[in-house]
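Action item from last meeting closed. Structure (151 res):
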């Protein structure tokens, strides 16, 4: 399970004195703990499932990519490099990411399976994709492809 893998990785990083990996893994575990607490408030006592953790990791990567753009624009290349190192560490815990053609195929398949024909079906398409491909694709890109096909 992903939760145990992250905890074990933190222990290994601490023993290896890998400061960047330790700080990144602590950020991931803290975000996961926050989501677990929120889940308990909603009546889900067992914590968040792996699919939600994968989604959280993708969000963390997206945030860091945005930060890299701003750091590069501001001439803070050392901070951009740190963000990229964090992205590399986070990506180790995600499944293989689908390429653009694979995302397009997945969108087409989801649209066909649910019989999507109009923009009002976007929510169902995205829900189907999240269920089938949690942690495997950029859902922003999938959304753009779906909108193009529906219009």
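Sequence:
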């Amino acid at each position: 399970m992903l939760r145990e893998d992250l905890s074990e990785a933190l222990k290994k990083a601490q023993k290896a004195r890998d400061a960047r990996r330790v700080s990144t893994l602590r950020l991931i575990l803290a975000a996961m703990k926050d989501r677990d607490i929120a889940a308990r408030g909603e009546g889900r006592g067992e914590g968040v499932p792996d699919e939600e953790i994968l989604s959280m990791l993708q969000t963390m990567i997206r945030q860091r990519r945005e930060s890299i753009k701003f750091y590069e624009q501001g001439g803070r290349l050392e901070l951009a490099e740190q963000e990229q190192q964090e992205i590399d560490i986070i990506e180790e815990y995600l499944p293989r990411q689908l390429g653009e053609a694979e995302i397009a195929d997945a969108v087409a398949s989801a649209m066909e399976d649910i019989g999507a024909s109009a923009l009002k079906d976007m929510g169902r398409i995205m829900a189907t994709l999240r269920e089938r491909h949690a942690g495997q694709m950029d859902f922003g890109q999938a959304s753009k492809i779906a909108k193009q096909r529906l219009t």
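Note appended to the action item: The helical segments are 2-16, 19-41, 50-73, 77-91, 100-114, 122-132, 139-150.
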